[in-house]
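retry 2 of 3: previous attempt timed out while embedding nicotinamide-adenine-dinucleotide. Reduced batch size to 1 and resubmitted. Inputs unchanged:
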Amino acid sequence: MDEFEGKVALITGAARGQGRSHAVSFAERGADVVIVDRCENRETVTYPMATVEDLDETARLIEKTGRRALIVRADVADRAAMDSAVAQGISEFGRIDIAVANAGVSAMGAVQATSTALWDETIGSNLTGVFNTIGAVAPGMIERGYGRIITISSMLGRQGATNTAAYVASKWGVIGLSKSSALDLAQHGITVNVVAPGNISTPMIHNDKLYRHMRPDLESPTADDVEPIFRSLHSQPVAWLDPFEITRAVLFFAAEGSAHISGTVMPVDAGNAARVT
Ligand code: NAD
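retry 2 succeeded.
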């Protein structure tokens, strides 16, 4: 379990959900980890964001493995804050070898009902946030001639969907940005790859607002009530996947042996990829 011994990973959106799974898994395999999260609710986002306590808990889980954690509270949409997060990571651990641009928000709404504020928040966190993460880690990686960057899109980054225009746009954007970054950084020993998850069991999908959106016929829908709808979004008969299923793909792209895999998109979406080009 020492595959990443001596390496330093930076994970955005690390306070909970998939980001926490990635962060703790890198630590279990020997890496020190810079964990970045905003830990702040937004008026436009209808479900609660992670808390400072969540981010502390991720740090505790990392330290339990014997590795070091550096906590940075930052909004990925803010370039100066991301430059500072990376500078803090380099000052503490010497460098950043691996970056996982995972932070993101879900936004519901038909295009005609999407406010400018919701659009800005969604593009800011999900797309500009990935741009800022890549932009902040790239100079140090170029200097050292080594880097593994993994970005998180979605199965909705490869198809259209109703009531999700801003989110879908942001996730298609992540793929275009990542492929172009892979080309720009190819001369420098840096790979950039995308993981495109299906429904993953985190607070982003397990929240009252989304449940009610999916089952407007029920007063207080439960996970059991929405399970068949989530299942229909996958090809395999499974409604949602464990965050570690995404971590497994992230670890693959971060590995030494993946040096010559760059610019790719790996769907981990219970077979939904079979339905889209
Ligand atoms: P989550 O809500 O549990 O975690 C997202 C984390 O990102 C939270 O800790 C939140 O505080 C943080 N965050 C949000 N905006 C931020 C910002 N601007 N700056 C810093 N931190 C910010 O959800 P998750 O499922 O773990 O999501 C992780 C990634 O996976 C996201 O990019 C999401 O779009 C993507 N994704 C999720 C699913 C799913 O079904 N859960 C499916 C496809 C893609």
